[in-house]
Design a protein that fits this description.
This protein is α+β, with helices and mostly antiparallel strands. Among the domains are: 71-171, no CATH class; 354-368 and 397-514, no CATH class. Helix content is 35%, strand content 19%. Strand 22 (617-624) and strand 23 (631-638) form a beta hairpin. The termini are far apart. 42% of the residues are buried.
């Protein structure tokens, strides 16, 4: 029991311990904040005192292989509003915005919305950049006299327009008009989600980045490095000084392998072919051909460099300068209008039809069929229920070369059917050889070519794996349809057949595959790489449109060099046989009418793709000169008729332009320059051979991964 006199002392002791504990805790926390974690808090405090203002770097320009500008920067007078200053005016600058509205042709309310930072409940139109950075609200071209007069009034009466800034800035311009629009691409604002991606780590939220074409693939090199001015601000946001400033670094210029003259000729030939096809009667009796889309690809056979890549319908890339409206963008993706934004050369996939017979021929030759053998070409092939030649004609016993020249389907049905039987037919062996499928895969079909453009399609190889995957995806729906009393007996039987064994690779599937029909699909660029490999002796090359990057001062050149993707498993003798047979197509076969009298030996193959529910797809794939192939030219018109009547004449028109037949040549001698354009001392780009005092530093360039898909 504690004595009465000890109780006060005990209480005092407890109180002292408590006070000391509290003081120790406070001192420990104070040490932690000021010493242990002091740097972090100091940095955070510093961030509260500085703000960054970005100066956009001049974007690199784009040139064709001869140095002709395809995309360049033009000067525009940009009117901007400094929101930080505006908010210091009475009523947050409402009177200033009302006076500015008629100058820029917008309402004061819209201006207020555009300069308000995005975030929270604020939705576009709004400003995604720094709140301390002037916000562009309108731009005027130097030749816009009326607009410049209005801006001049702003400059003359600065006291009425505080916080309004006018300055000259660079915006994208397309001096060649719509030429190569799909290859070039366009710019668009970056999304908040994309700013977290590694390739956009140093990009401001208000920036414009490449959205398609080479603008997207080479975006990192083209956009350069923005300048940053770090401003000191007080606790209410008033700027008190400048802490640091970094000048912007201009982006590199991009030289393409595209030749503007050949590109224009390809686009013109494609437009002519579409117009002509729309006057031709549909062989199915359905009026005239719709000719809704098409493409032409011109590629160097030995390097994979793309010389031209046309797509129809096309669009004007300048519509995206300043931002396309919702209505404009909707029209560019509207299927009823042909979806002009779709790049048919790499994003359109079509049944290759008889152009595929070059692959099938390579397969049967490597499978042991003799080159000089004789084969029967009946009008119909009995083992497959009488599958017929394209027009039912019978050529009797012919050589394999004649089968290609005359485009006999039934010979290839027989090849495919016998190989299918050898692999077990409807009860396949454990590891079917499928020679034609394997050859198509070795030619790179069914996978992307690797071209330096975004959103490329891989096409489709309709092999056993494809059928299995499709069956697994659709089986449940077909099985339901097989027992659906609302459907006709014929439809229920068809659904039940697919439900039971829709994954089976049948003899008809093999036959269709042999002539490029059925579910097998290729892009025009893929077919160009196939014929390029036949032309160059078996090298499967990665196609590319980028030729080199030139630094703004011309001191550095990064070349985009040819890349070998692989070699096709076809002997040199068989490749020579193929080249000769394909030459026969233009001299004595289905394309002889289109190439009669042409002074350069051209090898090629017509194709007419039959598509369920649509009109025929016209194809012609070719290369020239036959004795030493330099160029591959592939043309396609969707719903455009036969290869002989639509595609072959279109490709002939391209060759006429290249070799100067009946017109001045757009590519003298059919050869591109081997030297690169160069940057002159004044910063302009000169054609190959231009003398400059600075010797470039050569080096390879591997472009970064492009965005996976085209977006607005």
């Amino acid at each position: 029991m504690t004595a009465p006199g000890q109780r006060p002392r005990l209480r005092l002791l407890v109180l002292q311990v408590l006070v000391v504990s509290i003081l120790a805790t406070l001192l420990g926390r104070l040490w932690f904040l000021q010493v242990y974690d002091g740097r972090a808090y100091a940095a955070a405090a510093s961030q509260n005192r500085v703000r960054e203002v970005v100066t956009t770097a001049p974007r690199g320009q784009v040139y064709d292989v001869t140095g002709k500008a395809l995309v360049r920067n033009r000067t525009a007078l940009v009117v901007s509003v400094d929101r930080a200053r505006l908010l210091k005016e009475p009523a947050d600058g409402e009177a200033v915005l009302r006076r500015l509205a008629p100058v820029v042709g917008k309402s004061a309310a819209l201006l207020r919305q555009e300069i308000t930072p995005c975030g929270g409940t604020v939705r576009p139109p709004c400003w995604r950049g720094s709140p301390y950075q002037p916000v562009p609200v309108q731009e005027f071209a130097p030749d816009d006299a009326a607009g410049l007069r209005r801006v001049l009034r702003v400059e003359e009466r600065k006291e009425d327009f505080p916080a309004v800034v006018t300055r000259f800035a660079a915006v994208r311009e397309y001096p060649a008009g719509t030429t190569a629009a799909h290859v070039l691409g366009y710019l668009g604002p970056i999304s908040p989600q994309e700013t977290r991606l590694p390739q956009y780590a140093d990009v401001q939220e208000s920036a414009l980045v490449g959205r398609s074409g080479v603008e997207a693939t080479y975006d990192t090199a083209l956009r350069g490095r923005d300048g940053v001015q770090t401003l000191l601000v007080d606790h209410v946001g008033t700027v008190t000084g400048t802490q640091s400033e970094t000048a912007p670094q201009a982006g590199d210029s991009l030289v393409l392998s595209i030749d503007a003259g050949v590109q224009a000729a390809a686009e013109q030939a494609l437009a002519h072919a579409v117009a002509k096809a729309r006057t031709l009667p549909d062989r199915g009796g359905d009026g005239t051909y719709k000719a809704d889309s098409g493409s032409v690809v011109v590629m160097e056979a030995k390097t994979g460099r793309v010389v031209a890549m046309a797509s129809y319908p096309s669009y004007d890339p300048s519509v995206f300068v300043g931002g396309a409206s919702d209505e404009e963008y909707a029209s560019l993706v509207d299927e009823a209008r042909g979806a002009p934004l779709v790049f048919r050369a790499i994003q359109g996939a079509y049944a290759p039809a008889s152009t595929f017979k070059a692959v099938s021929t390579a397969a049967v030759l490597e499978d042991g069929y003799p080159r000089d053998g004789t084969y029967q070409c009946p009008g119909a092939y009995a083992p497959l229920g009488g599958k017929r030649n394209f027009e039912g004609e019978s050529f009797g016993p012919v050589t394999l070369r004649t089968a290609i020249v005359r485009s006999c389907d039934t010979i290839f049905y027989d090849f495919a059917y016998k190989e299918w039987l050898r692999d077990g037919g409807n009860t396949p062996v454990a590891h079917p050889k499928d020679p034609m499928v394997r050859m198509a895969q070795r030619f790179g079909l069914g996978t992307r070519t690797g071209v330096d453009l975004p959103s490329e399609r891989s096409g489709t190889i309709a092999d056993r794996a494809f059928l299995q995957q499709r069956w697994e995806r659709l089986k449940a729906n077909f099985c339901k349809g097989a027992v659906n009393p609302a459907r006709s007996p014929e439809r229920r039987r068809a659904d039940k057949e697919f439900c039971d064994d829709g994954n089976r690779f049948r003899g008809g599937d093999a036959a269709n595959f042999a002539i490029g029909q059925g579910d097998t699909l290729v892009t025009p660029l893929q077919l160009a790489t196939v014929y390029g490999a036949i032309a160059n002796g078996g090298k499967l090359l990665v196609p590319h449109v980028g030729r080199a990057l030139l630094s703004a001062d011309g001191t550095t050149v990064h070349e985009v060099r040819p890349v070998l993707r692989g070699r096709v498993p076809v002997s040199p003798v068989d490749l020579a046989f193929l080249r000769d047979a394909l030459h026969g197509v233009t001299t004595e076969g289905t394309a002889r009418g289109s190439f009669a009298g042409f002074p350069v030996a051209v090898a090629g193959k017509t194709g007419t793709g039959e598509v369920a529910g649509k009109q025929d797809t016209a194809w012609f794939a070719s290369f020239a000169p036959v004795e030493d192939p330099e160029l591959v030219v592939v043309g396609m018109v969707s719903q455009g008729g036969t290869g002989a009547t639509t595609a072959a004449p279109m490709v002939r028109e391209v060759y006429d332009a290249i070799y100067g037949v009946g017109r001045p040549s757009v590519l003298p001698g059919g050869k591109l320059p081997t030297a690169l354009p160069v940057v002159r001392p004044d910063g302009t780009v000169g054609p190959p051979g231009t003398k400059v005092p600075v010797k470039p530093v050569l080096g390879p360039y591997v472009p970064p991964a492009a965005p996976a898909r085209t977006s607005r």
